[in-house]
Amino acid sequence: MWTLAAFRARVPAMIKLRDVLAIVFVVALGTACGGTQEPVSQPAAASPAPAAATADVTPPAAAPTPPTLRLGDIATPTAYAVHLTLDPEADTFSGEITISMTVARATDHLWLSGVDLSVAGATIESAGTKVAATPIDGGHDFIGFTFPQAIGPGDATLKVTYTGKAIANEDSGLFRQQQDGHWYLYSQFEATDARRAFPCFDEPSYKVPWTVTLTVPADDVAVTNTPPASQTSDAAAKTKTIVFAATKPLPSYLIALAVGPFDVVDAGTVGREKVPFRVVVPTGHSGEVAYAKTNTPTFVSLLEDYFDMPYPYPKLDVIAIPHFFGAMENPGAITFASSLMVRKPADVTTDFKQTYAYVATHELAHQWFGDLVTLAWWNDTWLNESFADWLSTKVLRAWKPEWNGEVSAVAARNRAKNADSLVSARQIRQPIKSADDIANIFDAISYAKGRSVLDMFERYVGEDKFQAGVRAYMHAHAWKTATADNFLT
Question: Considering the entire predicted model, what is its pTM?
Answer without folding.
Answer: 0.87
